[in-house]
């Protein structure tokens, strides 16, 4: 026992803290949903003033566990202790009264209202509203969360919106702040700001439970990590003493393959976008302003950017789901097709992996065979005079699953029954096997487990090696830095020049993503 | 302590096909309770309703006569429902089909041209399509809800029919009754079985079932319709245009309803009357759902609902009960079907959500 305790200083420190009473202690929490045991006898202790990481892949049971803490779900068995006392958290109100605040991954804000109105809506009626402005400003200042209470939410960046959620929590003086994947929508600079805030909070002994699958962040921020896999706690560790790789392997429970890019030469221009403009359709859409770029055979071009800077609008125009205003704005190997729909563009060799897997890239309620037909009916010749050749479609689906290692319960199982990673591998595989000349992938590994992400990255790299031009849009800079040859940044509907990956760093891209001066003499519009 | 609905993880596939039978069973039970409350012997009444109509060959032939329009319309509606297009104005499309198809026999009542009948059928289809094109246009152009537009157009259609048979299309030798001339032989559907009213339309309905089945199961159009219904964004991704699907399913359903309309007037009725359908267009909605939106299921569901019309007539004749009983049974059937469908997806729980028990000590 003693030897273990004194293994390292850090751990010793933690052991010291641990002699106190944990602020919140979960004992043997289990929660089953029909068909899946989301939490299996989970123990977790959070001590006052610590920043505790909860680490796990999608589907590991993180969300279920925090929803239990916040009273949104009720455990089937197990106990919760608050300052050593056994408690029942019946609903989120009870959780807030105890002093648990939660910032969700997806914000619940009214776009058409001001910051103040949004914050007031989240507060209990009993809290006085008269001096709300002063209190917002006070809290904002104290923790470095700059906010103007009078601004409309629709005019704010994602990072600013997150600050509203945090301030909303802080106004209730929480003792424990739960943050669910808070950095997935932030630029690196915004992430630094957030971490500063969290550290200040921890100093005034507010505990923080930080949920993430971004290992680098956890290494920087947290002293203690609990790792969940398949609903069970598989390890507790000090993330600063682990490598990102060892953490990842604890998360996925197997060794990780790192994708390798080989040397290759860019060939002819396959996709050319010239002076593409698209007006905003409504107040919440982003206007595309004079976007131009070239994509050559054999290269991977990455487009970085914080969500909501025109990526969705750009993707729609590139895929052909929305037509461009001029035919010349988009050319596929020299053929102008800005005004041609998605079918024609597929005929020209364009395939596309949308950001949303369920409902866009795949039909949730249809089988894998049907989902193979969805985008492959023309390039895979799955039609015979408009009649569907089901046996051929089935063969195709089988090849996809085999080549891309898609785990499924049979080809007739519906797409929604696959895990996120497996479905993404299926969709990427389906598009790759159509032998595209140009492949557009939006958030190719968003919400996908580390093992599948590596496989998808490798598949995209191999595709480029065979001479396909690959365009990848992502918010994940690490991903783009891994797979891209060149990277451009989209900000407020404006695309920067593409820069060779050797000339950029996460920091320089982060600045561009935040809208500051671009390199290469281009000015990002910061209106 | 209010009961709550709690989602089940996975809907049982077997139950999806069993619920129509459960709903039918519950309808029979509830029907017996209703008869008992009205002071009639429940067992006798229910057998009169469900079994007596089938005692004779004529009765069975009548079953197919009534099922013919129901099945044809329901196949069209079901294909639309699969695409999340809720055309509930089939009654109006049926009426317009009947009117358009009757144009020829009314104005050329002496014709002996053998092409008369095929031409009537085509015009009937065109009439139904034209009526369904209005909601299609309003939906694709102005995003108007097709449930409202198609339903409202039904009343326009029946009033239009009424105007015609009371006015310009009234039979000059018809003693001022609001009826058109009786259709000539070339304008009347051939009878399949002498001594009954069973007509060629029954075979057309079977053919429609077959085509609908192939379309949905094997053809790209059916695939587009299913994808559009399940996931509109995925349909766009696949290159299927939403508006095209809306037009397609509305025109298809309208055409089939129009065909059913002209088959009714050129078959069992033989002339235009102010009322040419006992609500086939609406009952077909129940048929479509009872048949699980599948053409083969609809074939059987059509027979069940046809029986309810016959049962209503029989209890009226034999027991002096109002014919409206048929509508009561149709309503109960839909009610129980929807109720059991809810229970496929949800289970009922009583009391508060389960909470980790034991208070703090």
In short, what is this structure?
The complex is a heterodimer of chains A (527) and B (361). Chain A has 527 residues and is α/β, with parallel strands linked by helices.
Please give a structural write-up.
The complex is a heterodimer of chains A (527) and B (361). With 527 residues, chain A is of the alpha/beta class. Among the domains of chain A are: 1-99 and 204-254, 3-Layer(aba) Sandwich (Rossmann fold), CATH 3.40.50.300; 269-358 and 436-513, Rossmann fold. Helices cover 33% and strands 23% of the residues of chain A. Chain B is mainly α and 361 residues long. Chain B has a single domain (11-346), classed as ABC transporter involved in vitamin B12 uptake, BtuC, CATH 1.10.3470. The longest helix of chain B has 28 residues, at 242-269. The radius of gyration of chain B is 23 Å and the shape is globular. The A-B interface holds A 33-35, 74-80, 85-88, 90, 319-321, 341-343, 346, 352, 354, 356, 358-366, 370, 373-375, 377, 383, 386-388, 390 and B 8-10, 218-221, 223, 226-227, 230-231, 233-234, 236-239, 241, 353-361.
